[in-house]
Amino acid sequence: MEPNRARSLLEAELKQIDADVETEVEARAGQVLEDRTADGMDIADSGSRVAESMDRDLTAGTLRRRREQVLSALQRVDDGSYGRCAVCDNPIDDERLTARPETDRCRDHPEPRTSSAASNREPLRTVRAAMDLDLDHPVCATCGVQYEPGVDRSVCPICADDREHVAWGGQQWTSLRGLATNGHRNEVREEVPGLTGIGTTPSFGIAQRALLVPGEGGNVLWDCTPLIGDDALARIRELGGVAAIALSHPHYYSTMATWSRALGDIPIYVHARDEQWVPRRDNVVFWEGERREILPGRTLLNAGVHFAGGTVLHWDTGVDGRGALCAGDIFTVVPDRRWVGFMYSYPNLIPERPARISRALHLTATYRYSSLYSAWWGYVITDDAHGAVLRSAHRYFEQVGAPTNDLPALPRPPSAPDDPAPR
Fold first, then answer.
1. What is the pTM of this model?
2. Other C-beta atoms within 10 Å of 133: how many?
3. What is the pLDDT of residues 6-46, one digit of tens each?
4. 119, 241 contact by CB (below 8 A)
5. Mutual orientation of helices 385-400 and 354-364 as an angle, nearest 10°?
6. What is d(CA 314, CA 34) in angstroms, rounded to the nearest whole number?
7. Residue 130 domain flag
8. Can you give the CATH number for the domain in which 45 is found?
9. By 3-state DSSP, what share of the chain in percent is helix, strand and coil, each rounded to 5?
10. Residue 173 in contact with residue 139, Cβ under 8 Å?
11. Do 218 and 91 sit in the same domain of this protein?
């Protein structure tokens, strides 16, 4: 980025931070005055004051760090080192610098996380402290994906694609603030014992729920749900925070940039083959190839079904030690939960190409998994999921007239007790 452009962005950022600090000082002064005249307040009022004080402490800490980062970036402009990654020394692209002019990290080297103990405190900031700039960003009412304020609001780019649809009444938008105002809230509960889901209720958009996949090195947030509330963040804090976000495909990008911000600017893993669909790129790491282990025991696999970058997450232990696949709707558990489906477009009922399904099954065939978790509450297979996926693909190929010998072979059924032993 040209130095004068960088300086202009950073000085504007510094001006905004200083204005926010002034607002915070005025708010604290008002709180002191209220506290001095609040004799006789009841316990509920007292608890509310404590919560407000904690929010302001978090806000002040965030503003202080942002100001230090901006001043450091201005120093780098002066000494000529601005715009290069502090880890690999490669140039940072202009798009990332425009979104986060203070950063000194490229997309492949996101800012380091704090210790796990700290991750349960300050990085899990409240909505008011960390996401005030995102509350009014447009969110598509059909797919639930959040965009930058300048997006052309005549149509959602993701919904204009054949794999989604624009509602019959025309394009509609809302925002995080609008969802909260209309009574939406987060639902955080176990999908199965040992695996927590996070959804939005009443249901909104595609109605998917996210999953908090545990393991060594921290939790992975698999896919995102549109709404982000304080109660959900507090529960995530109790469960150990989040070390990384990973997405299956564009329909579930949702409010991923805001989730990342709320969880401490953690990396968001998106396959590079779907880069064109990413609406907000803050903290996004575009990965390439067929597989990438993002944390111990959690490996992303580019299945290529539904979207070119369509991804599933293999969890080596699962909840029962037998492995699991978090599949979104790349492999979709259907109402008869003995089976899964493979579709190019769900709302428009366009089937997926057999060649893509074959490639996906050969890629996942070497990974052990007994459970499979689809995108919605209850759409899970908890035993012999690997076999269910293979049987589903063979049934699909037979129905569309594709050669089943292009697929991995079905497992042989166990012999009955009175069957002769195989030769």
1. 0.72
2. 11
3. 899 899 888 877 776 776 566 556 554 555 454 444 434 43
4. yes
5. 160
6. 53
7. no
8. 1.20.120.910
9. 35, 20, 50
10. yes
11. no
